[in-house]
Design goal:
The protein is an alpha+beta fold and about 180 residues long. Helices cover about 25% and strands about 25% of the residues.
C-alpha cells in the first residue's frame, strides 16, 4: 500500500456536478439531489483500501451525527474495477450494507468525477457549504492503520462544526492520506 496524499483543491472552486450509479439502489444520483441543506461531505473511498477500512466504523458514526444536522455525506469509488474487481459496484453494495453506510455509495466508472475533483487517494475528503463552495479539504484525523491513534474524525468534525456555526474555517489543514486511486 503506497501512501498517497490528497492534492490541493482550488479554494475558489465549487463542487463539480455529477450523475453516478448508486451501488445499493442501482439508481442514478446527482449532486444536486444528494447535497445537504447545511453542507455536503464528498468522500472518495473504495472497498479494499486499508486506510478506508481503518476509518469505516467512525465514518458511519460521524455521518449519522452530522446528517441529522443537515450535512449530507456522499461516498464515491472511482477505482479501475478491471484491475481491482473487489471494488466493483456489486461488491460496493455488499460492503455498504455490511458496514451500514448511512450515505449513498456511488460508482464513478469513467473516473471523470474523480478527475473533476482532482481526487488522489482513498480516503479523499471534501466538505462543501450549502452553496457547494469548498470549505474544507483535508484529513479525517491523525489516525492511520498501525499508528495506534484512535479514529475520532476530529479534523473533519471541527470543520463541520465551524461550518454549522457559520464561521470561517480556522485551523490547520493537513492532506488526506491513503492509497492512490487506481486509475485506468
Amino acid at each position: 500500500m503506497a501512501l498517497t496524499a490528497s492534492n490541493p483543491f482550488d479554494s475558489s472552486k465549487q463542487a463539480p456536478d455529477f450523475k453516478l450509479l448508486n451501488s445499493v439502489s442501482l439508481e442514478l444520483e446527482t449532486l444536486q439531489n444528494l447535497k445537504g441543506a447545511n453542507g455536503t461531505v464528498i468522500l472518495f473511498i473504495c472497498n479494499h483500501c486499508p486506510y478506508v477500512i481503518h476509518i469505516n466504523e467512525a465514518l458511519v458514526k460521524i455521518a449519522n451525527e452530522y446528517q441529522a444536522k443537515g450535512i449530507n455525506f456522499i461516498a464515491i469509488s472511482s477505482n479501475d474495477v478491471e484491475k481491482y474487481p473487489q471494488d466493483s459496484p456489486e461488491k460496493m453494495k455488499v460492503l455498504a450494507e455490511e458496514v451500514g453506510y448511512p450515505f449513498p455509495y456511488l460508482y464513478d466508472e469513467t473516473q471523470e468525477v474523480a478527475k473533476a475533483y482532482d481526487a488522489a487517494c482513498t480516503p479523499d475528503l471534501f466538505l462543501f457549504d450549502k452553496q457547494l463552495e469548498i470549505y474544507y479539504h483535508g484529513q479525517l484525523d491523525d489516525s492511520r492503520p498501525g499508528n495506534k491513534i484512535v479514529v475520532t474524525g476530529k479534523d473533519l468534525k471541527q470543520a463541520m462544526d465551524l461550518l454549522l456555526a457559520q464561521k470561517p474555517f480556522s485551523g490547520k489543514i493537513l492532506p488526506s492520506m491513503g492509497c492512490g486511486i487506481k486509475w485506468k
